[in-house]
Give the backbone structure.
Amino acid sequence: MHLAGGALTPECVALTTGAAVAGLAASAVAVRKTGLSRDKLQLAGTLGSLVFAAQAINLPLAPGMSAHLVGGVLLGWMLGPALGALTMAVILAIQAIALGDGGLLSLGANVLNMALLPATVLAAANRFSSSLTRSPRSLAALAVAAGVAVPLAALLIVAETALFRSTAELAGWSSFAAIMLSTHAWIGIFEAGLTTVLVAALAPLTSPKSQQCTWRPAVVGVAAGLLLAALLLPISSVLPDGYEAAAQASGMGWLLAR
């Protein structure tokens, strides 16, 4: 789902970068109002490491297509929407700068799609479930938020790649849009199930007992992330992800240009 640098026009880069900066600034203000303890900051680092590792693992989801965890809703659930969005933005920045996963020019759009949008969807789900707990109603809201955030992000990508382009450039765009929305509906189901399982598995990291030892949760989380990557990276699928597959199938492979 990471957009490459060549996917956006200069005008769209300016628009998405400005929107991302505004959204992250609002998130920073929200975190400052609620306060950020050392324990919460270490938890953000731990969970960020796990999501960073998980995003490196692509699993086959359909013929000719793979998918990986996005993790925006997961981070928002465990850390709160504002801190979750900031943590995901850091992950995306590291991926773009150090790994070339997503272009620097498209970083603003990727932050909108994978950090700020999931946080907004989760905030809306939180209004329905009253609180971020592990009650059946709250977990159902979590699954819905994770499942809805993915196709909504795909819809944003469809719009972002089309903004400020000529008619000639948009040849194949309707096919691209149809494939993106249909495949990411299925990927959303994958994201919903995996997010719910991971929230249950990671719940001990947020327990008061684990927070009493300030270093251990962080060390365990980073170690678990590295171990996960080491074990699963060799079997990670080489198939294109949903965005890449849609671009290739619609004849718009130039959307993948760095």
Observations:
- The beta strands are 59-62, 65-67.
- The domain at 5-256 is CATH 1.10.1760.20 (Arp2/3 complex 21 kDa subunit ARPC3).
- The first strand starts at residue 59 and ends at 62.
